Amino acid sequence: MLESKVNGSSFSFFDSSEIPSDVVKLCGSEDGREGEVIPLFVYLCSIGSKLRVDGRGKRALDHSHCGFEEFGCLTIDYCVTSRVKENMQTVKVSSESSIKSEMKVLSFDVNLTGKEEQSGKKMKVEVKDGGEINQYWLFECTKSLEMRYLSFVLNEEMNGKRSSFIHPSSSTITITSCSLSFANDELIGYNVICVEGGGPIVNGFVMEWGVRMNGKSPIVVSNGVTLEMNHSRMSGVKVVDGSGEEEEDV
């Protein structure tokens, strides 16, 4: 990893507060991906409290020190699992992005947000279940999780082992002005959100477009957990039982 080679000690002859223009020309690569050029000077800068994901950015790459405004991470899953290092660091999704593999955050609170509230828009996030399968849910968080102004689009069925998309285990989850849709009309064989603990708060969550769920539910809450849900809509969501019969809208 470049992070272990390019740092304040190895580049002590540079003042990180005033990086010379020549340093910007110094580049490297990671993990044998020589076609992906990474500017070395970012390793001399502090990332601060905000991490940026820019799925359409020309300079966006997933590497060990991505997340800057001009040099964002490419995917949300990499940014959340590899770059969140402090409690309540904000992961700002600044353009259409994606989740391509499972995410697991065990030590830090996560704030995942799209456009600002005043814009009235949600940032599109394509969700694909790729990579290794190590857990029964695609996104697990054991600390506080906040998601705002995001529009999740699941393009394909989850791996058969998955039981849910988002699984906040023993944590508090807050969802504000988010939506979820599916790109196909196949039966959905997993729960969307499964909450085991904490105090889930859902404000303005929309799920519709004729979704059919194969004996599963949009939101599952364990016994003893209180769900606060406001200004949300799940129209056109149907649960299909084992016989294939469709029940009433959820």
3D structure, described in words:
With 250 residues, the chain is mainly β. It has a domain of 155 residues. It has 1 helix and 20 strands. The strands form 4 sheets. Strands 3, 4, 5, 7, 8, 10, 11, 13, 15 and 18 form a 10-stranded parallel sheet that branches. β3, α1 and β4 form a beta-alpha-beta unit. The longest helix has 8 residues. It is globular. The relative contact order is 0.09.
Uncertain spans: none
Q: How many individual helices?
A: 1
Q: Sketch the major β-sheet.
A: 10 strands, parallel
**Percentage of β-strand residues:** 35-45%
Distance between the termini: 48 Å
Compute the CA-based radius of gyration.
Answer: 20 Å
* Basic shape: globular
Structural class determined from secondary elements: mainly beta
Strand elements, count: 20
Mean pLDDT: 75
The SSE order reads EEEHEEEEEEEEEEEEEEEEE
